[in-house]
Amino acid sequence: MKGLRTFLYELKYAFLQMKRHIMLCFSAISAIGITLLLIGAVLIIGLHVNYFSNDVQKDLSIHVILNEDIKDEASMQDINDKISKLKNVDKVEFSSKDNELELMIKEKGSAFKAYRGDSNPLSNAFFVYLKDASNIRKTSAQIKKIDGVASTAFGGDSVTSLVEMLNMIQKIGLGLVALLVILSLYLIYNTIRTTIDSRQDEIMIMRTVGATNGFISNPFIVEGILIGLLGAVIPYLIVHFGYEKLYTSLGGQLFTPMFAMFKPNTIRFQVGFSIILAGVLIGGFASLLAARKYLKMKR
Q1: Which regions span the lipid bilayer (predicted)?
Q2: Which of 88, 114, 127, 167 would staple 93 via disulfide (CB 3.0–4.6 Å)?
Q3: Can you name the CATH fold of 61-153?
Q4: Tell me: the pLDDT tens digits for 120-151?
Q5: pLDDT surpasses 80 at 275
């Protein structure tokens, strides 16, 4: 009961301070709201870029063409084993010369059907899937050095450029989130510090009658959490309803079916929850820093 009474007192006092400094709090809540909305947008983009990147890398493979004289099973198994032992190789799939011809017919047209049977001029091959597609060029060069391998192909510079671009976007997104979090901390920190400065005389009286640092600082921490939580409400609603509208208008994909979007429920839970949690944690941590710094200086 004592803990509940203390919490209710801290909550009441936090609301009272917010009311006294309503314009300052409104300014902080608005600024935090904009910042959290930007964080939400970056998170949505980051989730999709990560999904697209993983999807692209999952489907990327090196097409390994064997020499024409590699026909016996033992030789092909030996090459398979050597490729599988490479550090970046995840999986190796065999493709017979007949399967290679069918793939060519599918890609280049029915004119190549004439080569079915004994007239098939193609060689056996492997499709090699990688653990890290950003090193596809290096792995392709390693495979090409293996005895019995005639050539390798993986799509050239366009493939590596796409993977590198997606990885770069991910890094930029993480950097933006970090900067926005720091900005949010700074905004709430300044708001709480201003509130504390306006109550110096009251805090000195509380110290005189024996109030602990925790008793003095807790209402400020609660105030910071409330500012962060209130600042997260509008960004959450925009993400909740705005993303669903965007998903519907785009038909659940960006440009092509290859770039499928996350379902609205997934974004609502992951990004929406992250926005609220970020608001609470940023608000609580920033106000804790401000209160502790003041109490340490005035000790």
Answers
A1: 21-47, 172-192, 213-238, 267-291
A2: 127
A3: Alpha-Beta Plaits (3.30.70)
A4: 888 899 999 888 777 888 898 999 999 999 99
A5: yes
